[in-house]
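ok, trying the design again with the full structure, not the truncated one.
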């Protein structure tokens, strides 16, 4: 054994010393990469002829393959025959032995395929002929040689001929050359050999026959179809497929060849003639267990016949023929789709076929309606959950969540097919759903959770195709189905899946109840009994609360006669929501469906003016009093002041305030403060109590957030009467604020200003200094410069606060409250605010914020500046605007090339800047002209002529013309880019 062999063996021995192994690998790599490639070829051929070690043989074959691929042109002519003869010798000799490991056979095949690509047909014209095993070989040698021959063909297809992989231009050219030569020279001989060898080995050596047919399957796609579709080869393939004694792998290989024949690319007319000649009915009539094994063949045939039908149409005789072939295959397609596993047939392929088939129908015949019924059955079986996961889906553990997500994805294509069927055969769909509902309702116990879930899901999806008017009318069988749904009580209703989809489906068809009010009691039962809010599963109960709230919004006035019944049914639910024990158990459940929607529904009902005043007051008192008593109970214990935000009692307060907030959504200011002031008194008393909570627990941020939300509602319904309480609340809400707290606060103060305008001036004067100081403390200069972007939560909160601060300043200015900035206790922040507005209007990356700041300046100019400086409310502001704002924002920021006139938001900002220029001219006249026109435009090298034209446009009343001219002026100045101006 020489040094190289030892190194190769050491490098491939996982038990060897790591250091020695590393040295061996380096040595082998050095031999492969250094020196003359032809010398390496000779070395590899020598090792291949004499070494008994598989690792050495593999290394040699790999190195030889790499040399052929990368260095062939540099080989001396004398080397080429030896490579060829050595590979042929290995092909027919020592490496074709049955005992040779498959990885060596495959690597040898790869070397031969690489040589064929390089030399065939110019240098080695007999390459493929040389490889076809001789029929006169000894029986013991022939199977091994046939196996090697098939491997070479397979590798040649993988590495060069197949169009299933991306190829370079050189590879495509080589593939075309090889294929053309094979068609001319040897394809017919290869096909004849396939036929003879498979016939010979089908019983004695089925694995060899499988390998040969695998090669045949690949080449059928581009060889003359007549070579395999004939009286010899085709019967052999069908016999292998149909014969019960054929080995399973061989049957699949034969079916693969038939599938390649079916997929052969050709025009529709010859294609349908080919498909007809195959007479695949003999496959369709096989036993069911056999059909499942041939699922891919069956679905491919059906898909190809459908494609021919779609191209030729029903008016064409060949089109009708393709439809006949298609319909003959459909029962088998339906069977294998329902009964096959995913590894036996590709569901996506079948679903695409079914979707395409349904899309061809316009007015389905009775026969087609029958097929549509079978497709519905397929959809049903494919949509069904595995019973194994029933318990996990009920409690929705990790396994259940994964299964639910996977099924949701799996069903997407099925729903597409289902919608198509609903469109062309609504009556048949309704009958199918009716049958499923009846079957599910009659099932005992929880034996059929899956079928009930599917029946309801299909009914829900059917509602998506009917439309609002169709649901309202409930025409035909649909009305019967809705009535059946409303009165349905499934034996498996306790299961989460069934209960949830039932409620969603009831809600989907609620428009029917809106038109047929006699079914309101049934609808209320569905939401309020054990099928809905009283369901044992909390997820279902919460969802029912939300859906009931939506139902109340739609049916509100029609539910007044049932108000007492509704409230009686919800009494225990209401008390449970805010009980201490409930919070302790269920605190982890949160989100948009937090259970408070049941209070919102009640508020919507009792807040209607249709409810008599006295009754309304009694209803509200019955709800508010217990909630307020619970608050007082918590507040009565002074020790609670030290509790943290995770305390059960604090969480209870949060739940109560959420309930109060939701309840108030059914009331409006006119009812509360004018029509029925007693209601207003109750809400004020409730607010007083909530503000006590704020005073004691102002440091508990989640609770403070809930109180802030409640204040939003009280501002809406109590009107100006809230002012005394609001002043106190705003002060408390400003204590110990962080970015997120300030965001919540500014949203509240912006709502207050927008609603009450100047009426809230005195309150705003009181809190503005704290707002300004707190906001400037939280927001650093870096935050102001950041603009859009950033990924961290802290940065996102700062940017949200920044935007809301500008919004707050804008709301103040636009609601005649600019005088607050000038109030004695507020003036200390005036300079900082002005500098902030100037910086943002000129340099911020967010064009919308810049626009808002320009609008603020315009409003302040109008509010604070008179016709002369002696009339100005703020001395020095006029000069600041003319010298700073007009220069930085209206000129230099626009000259900056980042100011992109192609951007929509930038154009809107530009419009506001032009408005600002016009306002400044109207207010300041010669002062503005002297500074902006004579001084600033001259500084940026604007010609006297253009400056004069600008001045003339400024004096006119056509803002659009002024805007157009100023844009052209800016673009002209940008092109010059001269003088001392620095274009940022």
């Amino acid at each position: 054994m020489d040094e190289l062999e030892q190194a190769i063996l050491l490098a491939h021995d996982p038990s060897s010393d790591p250091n020695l192994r590393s040295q061996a690998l380096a040595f082998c790599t050095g031999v492969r990469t250094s020196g003359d490639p032809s010398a390496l070829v000779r070395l590899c051929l020598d090792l291949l002829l004499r070494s008994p070690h598989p690792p050495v043989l593999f290394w040699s074959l790999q190195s030889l393959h790499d040399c052929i691929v990368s260095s062939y042109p540099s080989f001396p002519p004398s080397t080429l025959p030896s490579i060829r003869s050595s590979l042929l010798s290995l092909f027919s000799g020592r490496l074709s032995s049955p005992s040779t490991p498959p990885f060596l056979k495959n690597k040898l095949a790869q070397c031969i395929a690489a040589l064929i690509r390089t030399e065939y047909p110019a240098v080695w014209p007999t390459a493929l002929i040389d490889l076809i095993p001789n029929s006169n070989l000894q029986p013991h040698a022939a199977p091994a040689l046939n196996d090697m021959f098939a491997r070479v063909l397979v590798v040649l297809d993988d590495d060069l001929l197949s169009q299933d992989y991306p190829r370079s231009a050189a590879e495509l050219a080589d593939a075309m050359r090889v294929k053309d030569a094979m068609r001319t020279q040897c394809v017919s001989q290869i096909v004849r050999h396939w036929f003879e060898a498979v016939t010979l080995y089908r019983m004695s050596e089925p694995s060899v026959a499988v390998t040969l047919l695998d090669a045949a399957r690949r080449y059928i796609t581009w060889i003359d179809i007549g070579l395999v579709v004939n009286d010899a080869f085709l019967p052999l393939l069908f016999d292998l497929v149909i014969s019960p004694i054929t080995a399973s792998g061989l049957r699949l290989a034969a079916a693969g060849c038939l599938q390649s024949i079916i997929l052969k690319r050709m025009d529709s007319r010859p294609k349908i003639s080919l498909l007809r000649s195959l007479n695949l009915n003999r496959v369709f009539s096989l036993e069911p267990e056999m059909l499942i094994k041939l699922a891919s063949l069956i679905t491919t045939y059906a898909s190809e016949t459908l494609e021919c039908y779609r191209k030729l149409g029903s008016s064409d005789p060949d089109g009708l023929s393709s439809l006949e072939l298609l319909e003959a295959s459909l029962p088998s397609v339906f069977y294998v789709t329902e009964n096959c596993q995913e590894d036996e047939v590709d569901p996506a392929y079948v679903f695409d076929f079914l979707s395409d088939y349904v899309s061809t129908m316009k007015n389905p015949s009775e026969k087609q309606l029958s097929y549509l019924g079978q497709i519905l059955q397929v959809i049903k079986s494919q949509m069904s959950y595995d019973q194994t996961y029933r318990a996990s889906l009920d409690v929705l553990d990790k396994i259940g969540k994964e299964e639910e997500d996977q099924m949701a994805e799996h069903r997407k294509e099925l729903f597409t097919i289902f919608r198509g069927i609903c469109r062309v055969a609504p009556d048949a769909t309704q009958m199918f759903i009716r049958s499923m509902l009846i079957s599910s309702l009659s099932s005992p116990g929880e034996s059929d959770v899956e079928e009930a879930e599917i029946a309801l899901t299909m009914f829900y999806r059917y509602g998506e195709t009917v439309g609002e008017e169709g649901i309202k009318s409930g025409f035909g069988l649909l009305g019967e189905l809705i009535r059946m749904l409303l009165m349905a009580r499934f034996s498996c209703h306790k299961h989460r899946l069934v209960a949830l989809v039932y409620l969603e489906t009831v809600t989907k068809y609620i428009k029917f109840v809106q038109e047929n009010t006699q079914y309101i009691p049934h609808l209320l039962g569905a939401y309020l009994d054990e099928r809905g809010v009283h369901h044992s599963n909390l997820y279902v109960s919460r969802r029912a609360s939300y859906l009931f709230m939506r139902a109340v919004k739609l049916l509100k006035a029609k539910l007044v006669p049932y108000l007492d019944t509704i409230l009686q049914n919800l009494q225990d639910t209401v008390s449970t929501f805010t009980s201490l024990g409930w919070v302790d158990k269920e605190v982890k459940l949160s989100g948009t469906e937090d259970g408070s929607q049941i209070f919102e529904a009640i508020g919507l009902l009792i807040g209607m003016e249709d409810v008599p005043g006295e009754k309304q007051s009694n209803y509200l008192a019955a709800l508010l009093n217990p909630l307020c008593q619970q608050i007082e109970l918590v507040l009565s214990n002074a020790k609670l002041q030290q509790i943290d935000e995770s305390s059960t009692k604090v969480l209870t307060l949060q739940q109560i305030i959420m309930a109060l907030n939701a309840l108030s959504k059914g009331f409006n200011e006119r009812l509360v403060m004018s029509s029925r002031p007693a209601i207003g008194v109750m809400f004020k008393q409730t607010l007083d109590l909530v503000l006590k909570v704020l005073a004691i627990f102002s440091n508990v941020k989640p609770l403070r957030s809930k109180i802030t939300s409640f204040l939003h509602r009280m501002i809406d319904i109590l009107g100006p009467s809230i002012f005394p309480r609001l002043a106190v609340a705003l002060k408390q809400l400003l204590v110990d604020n962080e970015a997120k707290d300030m965001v919540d606060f500014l949203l509240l103060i912006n709502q207050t200003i927008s609603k009450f305008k100047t009426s809230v001036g005195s309150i705003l004067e009181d809190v503005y200094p704290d707002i300004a100081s707190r906001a400037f403390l939280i927001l650093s200069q870096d935050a102001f410069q950041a603009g859009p972007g950033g990924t961290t939560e802290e940065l996102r909160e700062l940017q949200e606060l920044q935007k809301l601060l500008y919004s707050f300043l804008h709301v103040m200015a636009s609601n005649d409250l600019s005088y607050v900035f000038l109030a004695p206790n507020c003036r200390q922040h005036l300079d900082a605010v002005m500098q902030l507005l100037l910086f943002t209007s000129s340099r911020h990356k967010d064009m919308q914020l810049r626009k808002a700041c320009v609008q603020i300046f315009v409003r302040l100019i109008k509010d604070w500046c008179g016709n002369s400086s002696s009339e100005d409310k703020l001395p020095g502001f006029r000069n600041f605007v003319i010298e700073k704002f007009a220069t930085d924002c209206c000129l230099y920021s626009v000259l900056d090339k980042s100011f992109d006139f192609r951007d929509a938001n930038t154009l809107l900002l530009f419009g506001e800047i032009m408005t600002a220029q016009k306002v400044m001219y109207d207010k300041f006249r010669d002062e503005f002209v002297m500074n902006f026109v004579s001084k600033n435009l001259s500084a940026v090298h604007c010609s006297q002529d253009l400056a004069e034209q600008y001045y003339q446009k400024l004096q006119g009343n056509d803002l659009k013309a002024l805007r157009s001219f100023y844009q052209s002026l800016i673009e002209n100045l940008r092109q010059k880019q001269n003088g001392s101006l620095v274009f940022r």
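Keeping the full-length input from now on. The chain has 50 helices and no strands.
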